[in-house]
Design a protein that fits this description.
Elements lengths: L1 E2 L2 E8 L2 E7 L3 H19 L6 H68 L9 H26 L10
Antiparallel strand pairs: 1-2, 2-3
Helix pairs in contact: 1-2
């Protein structure tokens, strides 16, 4: 039978029968009752504690478990929020790096175009390597001239010097 969307469920705890209203299914409610019943019976097993005292201790243990679970939930929420903040920061950094990368690619394209335009005899239809050849030759000539200057400015070991 249902009342306001809740079902009447018959449970037994410590030999006492109860009717409870629950929006949960019967299996779930009976499972909770069985857990409470087992806890009370375990505490009463040695005969030193009354059913009432065992029920109170079971309630305290359940409250303790609930508080610890809620504390864990809050700690996990805080950790999740920290992770979300870290992800947001990393996404912002990634966006900045993408922008910087795009700018650097644009700079490369600009330098390529300049190199092609400034290379003697080069045009945009030529491959870049053809446009770079004259520059490489110029660098090679410059390096060989520097090497020749170094040789003339320092006498070799075979040259005789007069004092």
């Amino acid at each position: 039978m249902e009342t306001n969307g809740k079902k009447k469920i018959q449970i037994t705890v410590a030999g006492n029968h109860f009717t409870v209203l629950s929006s949960e299914d019967e299996e779930y409610s009976r499972g909770l009752a069985k857990k409470v019943d087992t806890s009370i019976r375990e505490m009463c097993k040695n005969g030193r504690i009354s059913v009432t005292a065992a029920a109170i201790l079971t309630a305290v243990n359940c409250c303790d478990d609930l508080k610890k679970a809620n504390d864990d939930i809050e700690r996990l929420k805080d950790q999740l929020n920290k992770y979300l903040e870290d992800i947001t920061k990393q996404n912002e950094k990634y966006s900045e790096l993408q922008k910087e990368n795009a700018k650097l690619r644009a700079d490369i394209d600009t330098y390529r175009k300049r190199l092609i335009e400034e290379s003697p005899g080069a045009n945009e239809d030529e491959p870049l390597s053809a446009a770079v050849k004259p520059l490489r030759r110029a660098v090679a000539v410059s390096e060989s001239e520097e090497a020749a200057e170094d040789e003339t400015s320092h006498p070799s070991e075979t040259d005789e010097t007069t004092l």
